[in-house]
Design a protein that fits this description.
- The chain has 181 residues and is α+β, with helices and mostly antiparallel strands.
- 45% of the residues lie in helices and 20% in strands.
- It has a three-stranded antiparallel sheet.
- Strand 4 and strand 5 form a beta hairpin.
- Helix 1 packs antiparallel against helix 6 and helix 5 packs across helix 6.
- The radius of gyration is 21 Å and the shape is elongated.
Amino acid sequence: MSKFVAEKTYRMSDENDNLIISYVVNKQDKTTALLAFEETKKTERLEIEVKPYKSKRSLEQNRMLWALLEKMAKAVSGVNTTITREECYCIMLEEAGVKYDYLLALPETEKELRKSFRALRNMGIQREVNGKTLTMYQYFIGSSKFNTKEMTELIEAVLDKLVELGIYDSEIELIRREYGV
């Protein structure tokens, strides 16, 4: 999905009286608009949504983060989807130096643990405790507890990782520009 901000709109008609709507895009959004054009120029039909621009930076940060993590997961694992966006989330939290800890639990409780900890890794390590086999899990203090500044830093770290991995499209460019990365 491509998004950019337009400063002005114009209405015109062609020789067949078809309506032409054009948008003026400033220098800041020019790259994103050009990428969107290149990505869609061979498409016969497009679904276009136009709405007034509202800056919802802190409200949109979570959406942006998960969209970026989804792109990362798909690029890293390809069609096999062996790496989930949740695993990418754990990787990025770890790289960003977010606090984490470990716990031992019965393997059958993993589903319930995931409800409490979005950022949870099964470490593949088992221990015997009081005759029961327990699995070691790593859990992170997730981004839901972050303030705007911490979330911005995490998004910037994800954007840097995407560059490192060679992952680039118009949506990523829009987010990079918004965060000044």
